[in-house]
Fold this protein.
Amino acid sequence: MKRKDFFLGCLLAALTLVLLTGPVVAAEIKMKIATVVGPPHPWIDGANYFIQKVAERSGGKIEVTLFDRGRLGADSSVLKALRDGTVDLHIGGSANAATYVPELSFFNLGYLYQDQAQFERTLQVTSPVFKEFAKIIEGKGLGFKVLSLTGGGVRNISNRLRPITKVEDLKGMKFRVPGGTIPGRLWKALGTLPVSLPWTEIYSALQTDVVDGFESTVPGYDSSKLYEVAKFHSMTEHEFMLSVFLMSERSFKKLSPEMRKMVEQTGAEAGDLIMKAGVTQTAAMLEELKTKGVSVNPVDKSGFIKLALPLQDLEAKELGLTEVLKILRETK
C-alpha cells in the first residue's frame, strides 16, 4: 500500500509541475550563431540576449545555440556557411565581411567619427547611414540579412615590442590586419608592414614573430588573452569598431512573417546591447589589464590623423560613398 501511495504522490507532483509551468514545447526550428571571440565580450552578451529573447518570444519554438571562440571556423568560413544556410547567424567585425561587401571597408577608415555619440547616432536603424548600408549589403544577392550594424568598443594598437606614443613608432612593425583592402592600405600608410591573418591566428603569430602588433577593441584583446603575448597597449582610438549582426537569408525566409518581425526586432535590440557593452567593458577592462602587467599609454594622435584624413576622401570616392562621408562629416 505504501508503495502504491508513493507512486500516486509522484504522479500528482508531476501533474502539479506541468500545471504550474506549462507543457514543455519542443523547438521546431534550431539555429546556430557563430562568433570568433569568447567571453567576456560584447558580441557574446549580444548573442546570449538574442538567444534568450528569441526563445521567450517564440514560445520555445526557436532554439538558438551559440558557437563561440571560432568553433565553426574563422569569419571567412562562417560567412561562406551563412550564404548557403549551414550557419544561421553571425556576429563579427565589418572588416572580414568586407571581403564580400567592399563598401563595409568604409568603416575601417581611421578617425572617421568624432566621438561615441556620433557613432551611435549614425547606426540607429532609422538613420540614413544604416539604411544605405543595409540596402547595399542585402542588394548584392549574397544571402545576408542585416539584423543590426552596431559597435563593440573603440580600437587601439597592441604590440609585443614597445609603447607606441606617436605614428613614427610604428615604422617597420609587422602588423596584423583583417581582411578587406582599406585596413591594409591604412596601416601601410601609417608605416607598418601589413600581414593579413584571421583573428584566431594572432596569438600564435605573435609567439612565433610572424607579427609584432595588431589593432583591436579592448574586449577583443582581453577575451582572447592577447595581453599574454603583447604587453604594450597604446590608446590610438583610431576606429570605432563596427560590428555586423547578420542572418542567413535562407534561414530568415524559413520563418513565418510574425517570427521574421520578432527576429528583426530582437536583433536590433541585441545590437543596442552590444553597443553599450562595448563602452562599459572597455573602461572596466583597461583598469583590470593594468593589474595583469599590461602597459597602457596615451598617444599623440595628430600624426595618425594627418595621414588618415586624405585616405578617407580617396577611399570613399573609390567605394562610391562620397555622399555618406559627407553626411558623417556634417553629423555632429
About this structure: The mean pLDDT is 92.
